[in-house]
Amino acid sequence: MDNFVFRNPTEILFGKGMIAEIASRVPTGGPVLFVYGGGSIKHNGVYDQVRAALKAHNLIEFGGIEPNPDYETCLKAVDVVKKARVQFVLAVGGGSVLDGSKFIAAAACFTEGNPWDILRTHGSNVAAALPLGTVLTLPATGSEANGFAVISRRATSEKLAFSSNHVFPVFSALDPQTTFSLPAKQVRNGIVDAFVHVTEQYITCQAAAPLQDRLSESVLQTLIEVGPQTLAAPKDYQARASLMWSATLALSALLGCGVPQDWTTHMIGHELTAFYGLDHAETLAIVLSGVWTHQLRRKREKLMQYGRRVWSVDTAESAIAKTEDFFHSLSMPTRLRDYGIAADDAVGKVRARFAERGATLGEHNDITPDAVAEILHSRA
Ligand code: NZQ
Ligand code: ZN
């Protein structure tokens, strides 16, 4: 196991009625930017719960953050923050609202020039951010307890991530009841996204980190168990609660301590969203088994361990097949053609993007743009 620093400063307020708890945690000293998305919170009672909890606060609303939050929209919010001298950002919604809010919180304090540089440098130049709290309504990204955010720029078909310790939420309220209103497609997306967050930190090479392995396997097994349950019975509180907590732990700075990581599937997936508008999890389900098959020689040992412990199968190939079957069982497609995307078109565009950036990927940092092209070709 390599050296690591483990710090997760987010206070999690988990369970029924916990949105009320934010009242004592949101500062009253100045205006609070209340950020939300396209309006789901107005239909499922979450908006009213937040308003009721914060009746003594000075709330300035900023709605309209898109799924895959757009850079231009976030900049409009930054203007509001600056004009009104906002002191605290409250994000209420799914990963997109949380990520957009993290970017707003960082961009509002960014004095180094063009805020796009925050994304171009993946956050290394973020020196401060406004404090931020969240009320999560969609278990998937783990954004509620991590320092990552992913922002899309539709004008240039780009989608880039940044990370900074300054944008860890101060608190996140997770009431599983708020997720009862989710369409099945978003629940399915959340299961797959959380699943792949675990595998990106686990299906690499052996690292003498047996606890991280067992933690990862536990989260995967829980997702395999409760995912189908919660799709079949959307209002089963306990199943939804387990899904929500699993998704938080999947990307909360815990599983990846001191172990190699391989974010290839996510990196390729972000390009598929940027070019074709697919949902984030849809891209992951297409790419994941392509990466594993391409990297079989180097990942075989870990895939066999995963196969044995999680699926009770003996070979790496069967572990890959089981994973794809699991995605299909959630009604998640796994091929480019399922979305009418020509593989040649995707290969050309995505390969050029990685070549332009001079990017190499993988736990050995040797997955080249040509290898990315081969991976995508295999997912026609
Ligand atoms: O916008 P509203 O009206 O709120 O509707 C949303 C949106 O249309 C809806 N929704 C959310 N909660 C709901 C609900 N509808 C009914 N009931 C509820 N309780 O769901 C739709 C999708 O929401 P979105 O926030 O886009 O989904 P998700 O949470 O999957 O977030 C996806 C974004 O997160 C990024 C992705 O790239 C993508 O941009 N990621 C962020 C990560 C992070 N910060 O650590 C890591 C991930 O790998 C991922 O890249
Ligand atoms: Zn993800």
Account of the 3D structure:
Helix 6 runs parallel beside helix 8, helix 7 packs antiparallel against helix 8 and helix 10 packs across helix 11. This protein has 380 residues and is α/β, with parallel strands linked by helices. It is globular and about 60 Å long. Strands 1-8-5-4-2-3 form a six-stranded parallel beta sheet, with helices on one face. It has a two-stranded antiparallel sheet with strand order 6-7. The structure holds 5,6-dihydroxy-NADP and zinc ion. 5,6-dihydroxy-NADP (NZQ) binds next to helix 1, helix 4, strand 6 and helix 6.
Count every helix, treating DSSP H or I runs of 4 or more residues as helices.
Answer: 14
How many β-strands, per DSSP?
8
Second-tier CATH architecture of the largest domain: Up-down Bundle
Which class best fits the helix and strand makeup?
alpha/beta
In the sheet with the most strands, the strands line up as: 1-8-5-4-2-3
Which spans have pLDDT < 50 for at least 5 consecutive residues? none
Main sheet properties: 6 strands, parallel
CATH homologous superfamily designation of the largest domain: Dehydroquinate synthase-like - alpha domain
What gyration radius follows from the Cα positions, in whole Å?
Answer: 20 Å
What is the CATH class of the largest domain? Mainly Alpha
Give the helices and strands as they follow along the chain: EEHHEHEHHEEEEHHHHHHHHH
Secondary structure: helix percent: 40-55%
The rounded distance between the terminal residues' Cα atoms is 37 Å
